[in-house]
């Protein structure tokens, strides 16, 4: 971007909206007659009517961001016309079964907000060996009430180290170790049969350096990446760039070779950042999404979304370009495959998060879903401090997300936990932000005296003292430690913690994502150390293989696995019946007189109030009985007990209430 006039980057974004919309409308008028004819020819009468209706609805949402991104150097009208034709071709190639799905989704466009939604996240190989093998796991998913399956990256990665598949060498084929595109298509169809939606990653920020685009770029045949002949520009950017992997991949640039210069590598050195200021990159990535959508992928997880735009003097995250790219992509995909929704993977500060859901001063369609990493981090903070104050403070301060969106709520995922606790929130409860984050690392790595957790520090930065945490949910909840000591009381506490966290994510109003293995309390997996392609990355600690013996005990109410599994089934089944858990409306987090209790309330015009209570302390807590007046308990770790005008909450207990 150093060759562009940085001062002008926002010139088009600053124009009055009305003026930008008029330009888009004029462009659409010019385009429509020809597209009408082409659409009718390729799609037939009925489908073409729908396509044109979508075009009229979405065109401004495509044109505005394209113009902001590329308008200073490219002809926006020409570009928009090209993207529309790309979408039309994808619409024409869309299989009949997916067109039927489009119809259903157009009737019920907020399908992803239904309380029946429950997600499951798994590595294909670690869960089921291969994509075909997954068919034998569908009953398991159905038992857990799963309606959404996120398979970790499965497109063909580079050989050797590949960051768990996030270094893609070919977006058009599946990792041959896992199966084929045909297998994926078949799986998507089998999932649809059972009312489950397939979610797949789009690694949009970077490709593997072995990708054909990178090879062509090296040969001078495209300009998909950028390189810098010496350290001048990289140094200028790095002055304000935080390190994502400071421990094993410091810096954000890597040397291609003496002649090739330095290329942008936010993550590992074999992951080359694409140059998203080039419209050809946009079109190529769009092609990838459309292709996946036409195979039956319904949810596209936009990996590392915050990093798509780079501006000198910033941390190069959450820049305006990022939102323009996602919005333009959103509009283009809506034209071709309206059943598809986007999920933003933006693990950023709370104030930067809501824009990914389209929550800007003027709302714009962007991603329907985004990870609620605040809730995740705060829940772990609650368990360590045995107190809910910070969570109450931070959740109350969050801006609400657009009504059309849904949070993906989760306890654990395949990544480390980064302590995105804001200094402002910490200060508001009388804590020091950096000191609290240090405490959390000490606590979850097990070095804090009395800690029950068995995590490991990830990417410790000796310069800043920052670190993140790896480890399975069970290990972080104390189960590994308790089992090692064969301490039945400690096992009970660990299970209470694990179920408590899930009771919040399942009851918070969003799509709860269950991470494979957590339904059985799987332990840390140390075996990654023996594999040279994994040994450098301790996130593999919490990416275990499905343990068949543990799996076999899932229905045994006396076994640890059976106890967890039973609760998760109950949470999903109960949730499905509670209209107030429809995503989209904000949960009101309540300020109570007992600092140990996290309480949240949701309302739905058709079903009234839902109330959730969670006692984070390891001793009893209580709340005013008035809170539950007129409500009935629908689920809970313990039965409701009223004493002296208070609801008593046993240690680490949780309860769900609803209007009868
Ligand atoms: C994502 O995570 C993936 O979830 C990781 O597994 C990948 O390694 C990475 O992208 C590269 O593809 O920094 O520590 O705000 O938090 O994109 C993990 C988003 C990461 C980042 C996120 C990234």
TrEMBL record:
Protein name, as recorded: Alpha-amylase family protein
Matching InterPro entries: Amylosucrase, GH, GH13_cat_dom, Glyco_hydro_b, O16G_dom_2
A Pfam family annotated for this UniProt entry: Alpha-amylase
Superkingdom per UniProt: Bacteria
Signal peptide: none
Domain Glycosyl hydrolase family 13 catalytic: 121-550
């Amino acid at each position: 971007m150093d060759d562009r006039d940085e001062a002008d980057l926002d010139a088009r974004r600053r124009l009055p909206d009305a003026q930008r919309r008029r330009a888009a409308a004029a462009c659409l008028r010019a385009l429509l007659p020809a597209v009408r004819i082409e659409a009718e020819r390729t799609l037939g009468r009925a489908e073409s009517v729908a396509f044109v209706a979508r075009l009229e609805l979405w065109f401004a949402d495509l044109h505005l961001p394209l113009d902001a991104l590329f308008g200073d150097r490219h002809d926006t009208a020409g570009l928009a016309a090209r993207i529309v034709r790309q979408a039309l071709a994808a619409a024409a190639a869309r299989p009949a079964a997916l067109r039927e799905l489009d119809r259903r989704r157009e009737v019920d466009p907020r399908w992803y907000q239904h309380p029946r939604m429950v997600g499951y996240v798994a590595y294909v190989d670690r869960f089921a060996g291969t994509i075909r093998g997954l068919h034998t796991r569908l009953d398991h998913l159905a038992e857990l009430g799963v309606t959404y399956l996120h398979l970790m990256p499965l497109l063909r990665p580079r050989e050797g180290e590949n960051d768990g598949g996030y270094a893609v060498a070919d977006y058009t084929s599946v990792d041959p170790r896992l199966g084929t595109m045909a297998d994926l298509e078949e799986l998507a169809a089998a999932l649809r049969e059972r009312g489950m939606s397939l979610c797949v990653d789009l690694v949009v920020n970077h490709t593997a350096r072995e990708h054909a685009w990178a090879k062509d770029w090296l040969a001078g045949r495209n300009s998909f990446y950028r390189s810098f002949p010496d350290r001048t520009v990289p140094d200028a950017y790095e002055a304000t760039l935080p390190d994502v992997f400071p421990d094993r991949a410091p810096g954000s640039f890597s040397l291609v070779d003496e002649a090739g210069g330095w290329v942008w590598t936010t993550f590992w050195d074999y992951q080359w950042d694409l140059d998203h200021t080039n419209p050809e990159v946009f079109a190529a990535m769009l092609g990838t999404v459309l292709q996946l959508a036409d195979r039956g992928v319904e949810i596209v997880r936009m990996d590392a979304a915050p990093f798509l735009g780079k501006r000198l003097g910033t941390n190069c995250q959450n820049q305006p370009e990022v939102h323009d790219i996602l919005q333009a992509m959103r509009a283009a995909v809506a034209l071709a495959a309206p059943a598809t929704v986007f999920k933003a993977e933006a693990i950023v500060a709370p104030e930067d998060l809501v824009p990914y859901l389209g929550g800007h001063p003027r709302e714009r369609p962007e991603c329907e879903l985004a990870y609620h990493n605040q809730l995740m981090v705060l829940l772990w903070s609650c368990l360590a401090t045995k107190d809910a104050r910070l969570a109450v403070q931070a959740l109350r301060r969050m801006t609400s997300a657009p009504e059309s969106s849904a949070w993906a709520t989760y306890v654990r995922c395949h990544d480390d936990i980064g302590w995105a606790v804001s200094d402002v929130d910490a200060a508001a409860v009388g804590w020091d932000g950096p000191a609290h984050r240090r405490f959390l690392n000490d606590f979850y790595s097990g070095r804090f005296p009395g800690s029950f957790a068995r995590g490991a520090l990830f990417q410790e930065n000796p310069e800043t003292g920052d670190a993140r945490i790896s480890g399975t949910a069970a290990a972080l909840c104390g189960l590994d430690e308790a089992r090692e000591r064969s301490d039945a009381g400690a096992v009970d506490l660990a299970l209470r913690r694990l179920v408590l966290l899930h009771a919040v994510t399942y009851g918070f109003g969003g799509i709860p994502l269950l991470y494979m293995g957590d339904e059985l309390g799987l332990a840390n997996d140390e075996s990654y150390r023996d594999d040279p392609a994994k040994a450098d990355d301790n996130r593999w600690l919490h990416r275990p293989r499905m343990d068949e013996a543990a799996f076999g005990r899932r229905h045994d109410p006396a076994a640890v696995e059976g106890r967890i599994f039973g609760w998760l089934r109950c949470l999903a089944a109960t949730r499905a019946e509670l209209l107030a858990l429809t995503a989209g409306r904000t949960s009101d987090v309540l300020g109570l007189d007992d600092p140990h209790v996290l309480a949240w309330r949701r309302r739905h015009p058709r079903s009234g109030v839902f109330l959730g209570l969670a006692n984070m302390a390891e001793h009893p807590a209580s709340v005013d009985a008035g809170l539950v007046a007129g409500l009935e308990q629908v689920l809970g770790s313990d039965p409701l007990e009223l004493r002296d005008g208070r609801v008593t909450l046993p240690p680490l207990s949780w309860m769900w209430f609803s209007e009868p």
